Amino acid sequence: MTKRRVSRKTAMDILIPAVxxxxxxxxxxxxxxxxxxxxxIGRIFVVAPRDGRIIALCRRKKAVYADERxxxxxxxxxxxxxxxxxxxxxxxxxxxxxxxxxRLCKTDHFLVLDxxxxxxxxxxxxxxxxxxxxxRGWSRPEYFRTYRRLLGRKRxxxxxxxxHYMVFNRRKxxxxxxxIEKRHGTSWHEAIWRSMDKxxxxxxxxxxxxxxxxxxxxxxxxxxxxxxxRRMKADPRRLSKDAFRRLARSYRSLSFHERKGYRxxxxxxxxxxxxxxx
Length: 278
Description:
The chain has 8 helices and 11 strands. Strand 10 (229-231), helix 8 (241-248) and strand 11 form a beta-alpha-beta unit. It is α/β, with parallel strands linked by helices. The chain is globular and about 50 Å long. It has a 5-stranded mixed β-sheet. Mean pLDDT is 91; it is low at 266-278. The chain is 31% helix and 18% strand. The chain has a single domain, classed as Alpha-Beta Complex (Spore Coat Polysaccharide Biosynthesis Protein SpsA, Chain A).
């Protein structure tokens, strides 16, 4: 990717949804955005429930704390997504927050980044008038079943758009939500909820939905690059600068997922079905 083709005039806001368990990775995610994004950055919004530690971190990092209720007019309890032994209400809620990021971000393009993901190489998201999506080679079939129910379309891309970060165009995002609402005759978030198979975990992807919608409408306006994301078990606070540099030779980003946090706890003496949310 040549520097002369990267759009350096297009400023973009950054949106990072977070919860308190992300505090170990969030400082790294914010610092990496400032270092690795090759566009002028507007405001960095950290969208989260009201938590003193997150608010204090935003002050230290000169980010803007935004109460999640500014982005969505309801809490995660509106859509209780609890398939089997999983508690995924918060997981789904964060995806809905991203899809309504245009309510908060005012630049024409804004970058959404998962709070547990750290960029370790330079990234451009607009190049020669085209949108750059970072892609991987595998996905979950249920994402595309929901996508087809939502929009009446098959997936447009054989490659997956789930890279744990994505640039959104406000106009195209609004068009996606209008298309969903027109087809279903209800709000876009209610349509997503009704289109999911709620007996199965991980039945919706915001990144697959937006990416396939944009790519399907105009593939010539999209550049797809390999994500080269690595899932990490180590705590980022224990990785040295040399370790980050070594990993950057092979990867573009690192994700420090905690999937075990989505498992529902069980109440002693009762069947799992009666467990509390984890």
